[in-house]
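Field reference: sequence -> structure
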Amino acid sequence: MKNLFTPVTKRWREHNGYREILAISIPLIISTGSWSFQTFIDRMFLSWYSTEAIAAAMPAGILNLTLMSFFIGSAGYVSTFVAQYKGAGYPHKIGPSIWQGIYLSMIGGAVVFLLIPVAPFIFELANHAPEIQKLEVTYFTILCYGAFPAILANALAGFKAGLGKTWAIMWVNLVTTSFNIIFSYPLIFGKFGFPEMGIAGAAIVTALSPVVSVILYIILIFNKKNNDEYKVISGFRFDRKLFSRLIRFGVPSGAQFFLDVAAFTVFLLFLGSLGTEVLAASNIAFTINTITFMPMMGLGIAISILVGQNQGREVPAASIRCVWNGFHISFVYMTIIAVLFFTIPNFFIFPFMASADPFSNEEIWALCRTLLKFVAIYTMFDSFNILFSSALKGAGDTKYVMTSVFIISSLTFILPSYFIIFHFNKGVYAAWTVATIYLCILGLNFLFRFLIGKWKTMRVIEEHCIEEFYGK
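Structure field:
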């Protein structure tokens, strides 16, 4: 705990201090921020298009993300392998690690594609209005066609992320986001010679966007220079042992991501039974939360990378210093956002109101203002969640992260939400209270796990790599 009280000037200059963390995390913050901005713009356009479109987009989009999240988290975990191999001085193992992530991406894309036929059944179970269900199925189905490139892009990004070369990731994401924004408006509204496709147009552009990312990553990664140093081309062979290690550590990380997203997917499906206005307002509130929350995910990725490199070098003390410094940055940012949600909620809601009927949707806007107060409260604890779970995953403590998310989300979120909405008829505010309590408990859980320190002895790479690096 003494790391909490180091002077600010020393924290700025030291190894894994504020300056080094920001140098790595700022491009990732911009990258994750661009993704959330892209989602925000899509939701804003759809809210202008119709209440039904915005009500359908969030459940369908988050269900698609839920199905992909397992493979995104698993394949994307190659960044930890890259970071630890770099730290241990084994660059020739980095290229083969990326290829195992590519093979896992292929499996993930195929699985998500095969799940398309179950969409009508899932949305029927949610008991949303028939016109909403139809739009949900359309949006979900189109997004599933883009699953493979979306998963693959995250695996390829792991190469640059693990090496700490995060500016390349930023530029790839900015180009991809620009593509999405440029084409989503004309395809939704039928402008500039494009047909009016509504929610289907938004889905098509979203599904094509990761293809742009994949093309750019292929150009940046698979060249002679990287092959000479990291074997990114010659290391293409399937490596059973390395793939097994990726499964061993990456699958729990993917499962944690899946469980986290799935919990909110189920929660939104539950809320849909309370009416279109409640669902639309909740979708908007979560979208606003996303655009403010996702930049801190970039900071979390940076912390995971630095912890991975430190663990590869066997210097957990540097990891501790890094995590507390990152926590300070996150907590300050989250506090500012929480204050803004409480004081000027209309600033965040206005983009959705701009081209919508302000009178017919007043119930939605009023509800959004209240829901943003819930977001403000749990946002404070999300800084615990992001930073400390990222640190644990960077060290390899992925099984604990997965198990705790499963237990806590089941007992304090999903089951209570179900009974409150369907058995006790307590309504939207009671349901959001449960969501807030869940996120607070989850964040404190990861903090306590980090303080216990079991992660300090964990590694994801082979033990002989560490031993040879230190000449043991």
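Note: Residues 466-472 have pLDDT under 50 and may be disordered.
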